[in-house]
Amino acid sequence: MSDSAVVTVEAPAKVNLSLHVVGRRDDGYHLLDSLIVFAGVGDTVTAAPADELTLTVDGPFATALAEALPPGADNIVLTAARRLAALAGVQAAARLTLTKRLPVAAGIGGGSADAAAALTALCRLWRVAPDPAALRALALGLGADVPVCLHGRAALVSGVGEGITDAPALPPAWLVLVNPLVAVSTPAVFKARRGRFNQPAPLTEAPADVTALAEALRARANDLTKAAVALAPEIGTVLVDLGALPGCLLARMSGSGATCFGLFATGAEARAAAARLAADRPQWWSAAAPLLP
Q: Are 15 and 142 within 8 A, CB to CB?
């Protein structure tokens, strides 16, 4: 097998810069309005030719992922592979490797990004090009964040994850991602949310610079923060520590938590902040990463 036959796809962290809960459908699923971006840190999915479908998981969070899976449950990467094979009418055969660098159940779309990367890698490996609408429907069936991870660039997301449009151009910026290594259940956070629904507030104009981006985000929110902090008080501590770092323009939780982000203007400021956090809170996971264009 030549190296050229192996397909490698990055699965970057998904970050909700804002997240408004704007309603709920009759089936109980919540309707969202979110500005989603991707950071230059994440997992990696590799697909190679094989006679059967297998998955090997390595990386710093491989054990945590294995422990988080219910007994007998498949990793979402395998589920994505089988559904894509059925859609494309091909044999589900590939040697998949997932390098897990992102924390598990962390609100940064780790599993969703992995599934999207697997779909992209296997479309290339198997040389299939499913109907785009059918592929998006498959992605949504895997999870609400999989379609935007498959989209792969900054987007305004609505509905239960099916409404995706490109966001206005965003300025260069850096993020410091921090997770106290506390897993948070998304269904539990939504169940714990109280209060009225918010109004949609999609970003319609391109911010001139990172300061303008921070101002635009301050006019918005993450409506799940209060509920998540009630379930995992460590998130509140993360937000306080992030907000106190030199150069941090905004500190906010991503998704349903527990990962939070600090917004920074430069890589030097972000890396210095991440290093300081790593020294002060060695029990946490933290990473400095650019906002991907």
A: no
Domain boundaries, the chain: 3-166, 174-290
**CATH, domain range 174-290:** 3.30.70.890
List per-block mean pLDDT (blocks of 10 residues) for the chain, which spans 293 residues. Answer: 79 98 93 98 98 98 94 94 98 98 92 97 98 97 96 97 97 98 92 95 97 98 97 98 98 96 98 97 98 94
For residues 105 and 185, the answer to whether their CB atoms sit within 8 Å is: yes
Query: Same topology for domains 3-166 and 174-290, yes or no?
Result: no
Sign of CA dihedral 237, 239, 240, 245: positive
3-166 under CATH 3.40.50.720, yes or no: no
Active-site residue numbers?
Answer: 14, 145
DSSP letters, 239-272, are HHHHHTSTT--EEEE-TTSS-EEEEES-HHHHHH
Q: Tell me if 55 sits within 8 A of 68, measured CB to CB.
A: no
